[in-house]
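Friendly challenge for the regulars: who can give me the structure tokens for this chain first? No prize, just bragging rights.
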Amino acid sequence: LASLLARPPPTAKRCKMAAMDTSEPQTTNPNAHLERLFPVPGEGYTWGPPEEPTYPIPEWDAAKTKVVGGHSRNVNKLAWNASGDKLASGSDDRTCRVWSGEDDYRHSLKLDGHGDSVVQLAWDPRNNESLATLAADKTVRLWDLREGRARSRASIKLSHEYINVAWSPCGGYLAVGSSVGKKEGDEKDCVTVLDAKTHKATKRFKFAYEVNEFCWAPDSRHLMLTTAHGTIEVLRAVEGGPPPVEFDKICSCDDDDIPKPHADSVWVARAHTDACYCVDLSTDCHGPPLLAVGAK
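First reply, four minutes later:
Bragging rights claimed.
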């Protein structure tokens, strides 16, 4: 799993990296086992120990608050874009609003078009002006926020009402899942992968058990799912690109009571003793990736 998480997304930097010598460090270095591939701004990737990061401590005593308003009903979701200068909010009033730090969050763009509550948001990790909204009307809308205007560039109709959405690190895919409502046969849940350019579904995974929140792995090929079984699964969601990571066995621990995972899952582990609901992945380039899983 560590090698999966450490794999960078398929970006231009990765193409540049391919032309470099990415062989393992020589074992003559006593600290070679601590070295890994890490990004160097403007230079691609290189092997070596990264510089020690410095994390400033916030001056909490000097913190100030600012209240912004505009929604007429409950706010369901908040999300900052990658640069941290825009804040999006989704509401039961069927709208999304985007506040900008450029005007000290005094005014907001109103994104109107959904026919029901906006339940989730996801910013494009590679485009600070591109936003996806997921609503209870069984649609995903993609918004272009350039030039201070909100333009809906796509409305993608879904087969189910979903409550989770995640945008891949490479910017090429959206995953929607944790469906609600009536299903067919023994289907309890499903996850759909959408192409962000063509706006078409590339894959739809059906589950015989409940799947909750998920996030993308840094390689933009695998999804990390939380389940009602108390497990975390790594699902091969996108074909192509780097070869899939090989694991010695599907189960990461000697736990005989772990239910059988999805056929497209490449790894599963017990995370909690009860249903897992939420997950988040830290991809700080100065340290090992950390996966946090919350449960019932």
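Residues 1-5, 9-35, 247-253 have pLDDT under 50 and may be disordered. The helical segments are 2-6, 12-18. Your move, everyone else.
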